Amino acid sequence: MNKKQKNLIVLKAEDFLPLNIFRDKYPIHIDIVYANLKHPDNRFPGLYHPKVTTLWMHEDYIPIALLTSMICKQFYGWELKFYDCLRFVEDQKRMESYNFRPDLVYKAGVGGHSRGMAGDFAPIYANGVNVDLGTHFDVFPDKSRENSSHRNFVDFGENFPKILEYRERRNKLETAILFAARALGNRIFPLPVEFFDFRFYEAPDTPVDRTDGETYFGDYAPVYEKDMPAYMHHSKEPEEAPSEVVEQWNRKREAIEYHVERAAAREGISRILFHDSSSEELPQELHDYRQKMDLRYTQRYFTPQSQTARR
Predict the structure, then answer these.
(1) How far is CA 83 from the centre of its chain?
(2) Residue 111 and which of 73, 187, 201, 281 are 20 to 30 A apart at CA?
(3) Which domains, from first to last, does the chain contain?
(4) pLDDT in tens, 50-71
(5) Beta pairing, strands 197-199 & 189-190
(6) How many alpha carbons fall within 13 Å on the CB side of residue 170?
(7) Cα(287)–Cα(24) distance, integer angstroms
(8) Whole-model pTM?
């Protein structure tokens, strides 16, 4: 269990999973931009060690990422490329030294990334070509009106039909993750200044809006690299994870996939990516995790409070 410190929940390594382990079953790809010195979208060269290949994500965010990828694949023909998620406080401190606009680079410890609760991703086609959304990942203009990553940006220098295409594609991506989060009993906040950044809300709109099934990053303390095991590090070459840790990932992976499968079935999303594990005998840990996730959905949608909140 997580312990509390100064009224904030302290996250541990076991609260995160490598998104990489789901690539064999879902239309997702990992592109660690900040670890690749030659990447055309890397505005922070040297931020991550070049041997960093793992994208860490909080366990509550992963089901949303996976279901979003299914929706995009089934209805748009897109796959998803993930660039970043968990960004340690030390990473954010180093980012400040690159001297980009402060409204586009959060202070260390602020925001969802430092809890693994904000994902940066964009759609690609099955052949690996980026879906054209008008601009690339991580744009840092000098002036606010030039921020082509802003969700309300229209001054692309193109004719109206082309601008409409960009806006429609961005809206499709946003709709997919908002729907996925709702289907899984959670809420996602699309960051206005970056069309590719989707995160949990920091807090409910009002105390009465809070339900037990929703995750708010403001409940958690930011994560420091120095407090995490060496296999999660960004600033130096990560070590290999112990076998018992990998086994834990695989057990939790099965539970998450079950949870996503249930949500997909309820919402009419294709289940062809899943095997039927309903009849399998489950370890107690996995059984408990499934019950927890099912309860989250029930609390979110089938309580008197949920019937009146945020229509």
Answers:
(1) 10
(2) 73
(3) 4-308 (3.30.1380.10)
(4) 999 999 999 999 999 999 999 9
(5) antiparallel
(6) 27
(7) 24
(8) 0.85
